[in-house]
Design a protein that fits this description.
Quinone Oxidoreductase, Chain A, domain 1, Rossmann fold, six-stranded parallel sheet, globular, NAD(P)-bd_dom_sf
Length: 315
């Protein structure tokens, strides 16, 4: 089978011909139709989980995916051959990832039945970004009518967060790089868009919301930037960063809840998203569809933070 893999940590990903995996007890064999690309994928080949989970090489990349069950292993009860599934395929050992034509996934991992209303490409775009957005908003715990600033709104997580926040009755301020992005974010539910290329974000938000905002989801700022943005939050408000740059003491000093945020993937969380999706409550922001051969270049762009929108790999 074709797969995108590395032979050692920090290697450049390449397309390899590798053996089709054999189903094991408690696992399912999925014929992958599409895989979602996330920054965490290249962080894994850089060794972010080294020492925390076992790895195997060649290490096939990828966490998010969607496809069809081709075979079930002994003891599997949740799925049967022919089921359409999606989710986070990550499991031990790291290296049996979704950037492949076939993947082995434990039944008890973060996969579930795919939303009936989505194509495989759309489903593959949902798991990590969708669950992250959902859980960020749950953690912020804002009330209807509150204002939330989403910094990094145009990416996968930001696009989902904008929609989910607007659906909860929150007033969303979305950061954008240009008018095309601003129009897209308004269609997704943003009440206000701020072009961070025209003037410093802090200055623009302060001018438009002198009394402050109730919450901040920061998907892009470094430590200094996140700390500066805390001055935009009302006392008693909440701020979260997915970049792990929060100074807990700085938040406490300003009476702001939150800090560093890490997604907890689960089948239950995905099932909740599936319900929202099948009720027509989410637009899936697939911006780029690529082939396995295009993945190395797409990873390079992601490393440079130059990727635009959600990228999905079509098998």
């Amino acid at each position: 089978m074709k797969a995108v893999a590395v032979s050692k940590f920090k290697d450049i990903p390449v397309v390899m011909d590798l053996p089709k995996p054999a189903v094991r007890a408690g696992t399912v064999l999925v014929k992958v139709a599409a895989a979602g690309l996330n920054p965490f994928d290249w962080k894994m080949i850089d060794g972010i989980l080294d020492g925390k989970m076992p790895h195997q090489f060649p290490l096939i990349m990828g966490v998010d995916g969607a496809g069809t069950i081709e075979e079930v292993g002994e003891g599997v009860t949740r799925f049967k051959k022919g089921d359409r599934v999606y989710g986070q395929f990550i499991h031990a050992p790291i290296g049996e990832g979704s950037y492949a034509e076939y993947v082995i996934v434990p039944e008890k991992s973060g996969i579930t039945h795919a939303p009936v209303s989505l194509s495989a490409a759309e489903a593959a775009a949902v798991p990590t970004a969708g669950m992250t957005a959902q859980q960020l908003l749950d953690k912020l715990d804002l009330q209807e009518g509150d204002t939330v600033l989403i910094n990094g709104a145009t990416g996968g997580v930001g696009s989902f967060a904008t929609q989910l926040a607007a659906a909860q009755g929150l007033r969303v301020i979305a950061t954008v790089p240009d008018e095309d992005a601003a129009e897209r974010m308004r269609k997704l539910g943003a009440a206000v868009t701020i072009n961070y290329k025209q003037a410093p974000l802090y200055d623009q938000v302060k001018a438009q919301f002198p009394g402050g905002v109730d919450g901040l989801i920061d998907l892009v700022s470094d430590g200094e930037g996140f700390k500066a943005n805390l001055d935009l939050i009302k006392p008693g408000g909440a701020a979260l960063t997915t970049v792990f740059v929060a100074d807990e003491e700085a938040l406490k000093a300003k009476n702001i809840r939150g800090g560093n945020f890490e997604t907890q993937g689960s089948a239950a969380s995905l099932n909740t998203l599936s319900l929202v999706i099948d009720r027509g409550g989410l637009t899936i922001p697939v911006e780029n569809k690529i082939k396995l051969e295009d993945v190395p270049a797409a990873i390079a762009l992601s490393r440079q933070a130059q990727g635009k929108g959600k990228t999905v790999i079509i098998m």
